[in-house]
Amino acid sequence: MNHIGNKIRELRIEKGMTQEDLAVLLGYKSRSSINKFEMKRDMPIKRIVPIANALGVSPKVLMGWDDDPEAH
Questions:
Q1: Distance of CA 28 to the CA centre of its chain
Q2: For 7-39, what is each residue's pLDDT tens digit?
């Protein structure tokens, strides 16, 4: 997995969310898009902010630029 995929998975699990839960929050019809993001498939940059918001972190945390998940 790539770094952002690892981070999405790690944060999702920390929040007690399934891929399906995150998909619903983001308006996807199934978990397959979340699985693709976590498994190093292409993720459009425009998805970073919505995913970060759904996971309750800043985009900087999601991108690995800030290690403090409480930093917004």
A1: 13
A2: 999 999 999 999 999 999 999 998 998 999 998
